[in-house]
Every structure is written in C-alpha cells, then in structure tokens.
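4.2 Preliminary Data

To establish feasibility before requesting continued support, the project team ran the inverse folding procedure on a target of 174 residues. The structure was first converted into the token representation described in Section 3, and no sequence information of any kind was made available to the design step. The complete token record follows.
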C-alpha cells in the first residue's frame, strides 16, 4: 500500500527497485572512481624535508638495480611495505626523462595492473610481474602484458649523500 492508501502498482515497485539499485551501484562505484582519479584518494603529501632516506648514494649502481624497502599508503590508506628499485641515471641506457633529470631513478615494485610485486631480472634487463605476465623494460616502460602503463616512479632528492624518495608518480605509456 502507498502512503495515500492506494494499492502499489507494478510501476511503483519498479521505480523503487531501480532507485535502490542505483543507490547501491553509486555507493559501490564512488570509492573505485576516487581511487582511479589521480590525487583524489591520495594521502596528504609529506613535506620534502620529511622524505625518507632509503639508501646511500655510494650503494646505488650505475647499470643495474638494487631494491630497498619503503612504506607507501595503500588504496585503503593503510601502510604498505614495498620495494623501490634504485639505479643511477645513465645517459647510455636512459632514453626517457620523466623525473627532471634526477641523478637516481627510483621505480616502484608494484605492477600497474593489479599491484602484484614485480622483480628486476638483471640477465634480461627487464622487470617481470609473475602474476599475469607483465613485462617492463629497464626503465620501467611497459613492453607487454595486461598493465595499462609503465611502472610508477618516485621523486628523488639527494641530501648528504643519501637518496631520499618522495611521492610516487605515473609515467605515460609509450
């Protein structure tokens, strides 16, 4: 029965059901869209002098990568421990300049497909994602697989011969 005492019609039932389904869909979709829009769900940025030092410059190689632990915010806002792959910039092998010529390249170990951990395979000079077969070149650019873009990078600063990493950023798909 409706509020005015008349019987509910099929049209009234379908309208109410459609509104409820739309509300549920909107409620489930908004967090996903917020996470997909860069900067919308990001935690507050650390000030540059708060960027953590994760390696000594003397430990960072010129033609291969070393992995160093780092903590970032997960999409849910909880701390997530990942690896950051570090290598000194080398004009002989670096084609792209995404980070304003920083002396050290810092690449995230999270695959841009579903967030699986990638590994750098030095013999192949490739980053490999074991979950779904994503392959990235030595600069982190996407070569094949389901990933929508290359691996994310971190802003880098050198201070007192220590490599400090800042916020993560996406590189364009080549």
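Position-by-position output of the design step:
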């Amino acid at each position: 029965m409706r509020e005015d005492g008349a019987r509910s019609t099929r049209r009234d039932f379908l309208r109410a059901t459609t509104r409820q389904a739309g509300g549920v869909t909107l409620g489930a979709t908004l967090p996903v869209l917020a996470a997909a829009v860069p900067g919308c769900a990001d935690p507050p940025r650390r000030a540059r002098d708060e960027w953590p030092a994760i390696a000594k410059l003397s430990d960072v190689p010129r033609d291969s990568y070393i992995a160093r632990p780092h903590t970032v915010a997960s999409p849910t806002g909880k701390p997530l421990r990942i690896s950051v792959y570090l290598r000194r910039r080398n004009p002989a092998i670096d084609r792209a300049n995404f980070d304003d010529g920083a002396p050290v390249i810092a690449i995230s170990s999270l695959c841009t497909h579903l967030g699986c951990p990638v590994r750098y395979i030095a013999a192949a000079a490739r980053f490999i994602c074991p979950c779904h077969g994503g392959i990235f070149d030595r600069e982190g650019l996407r070569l094949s697989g389901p990933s929508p873009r290359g691996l994310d990078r971190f802003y880098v600063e050198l201070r007192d011969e220590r490599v400090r990493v800042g916020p993560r950023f996406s590189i364009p798909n080549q």
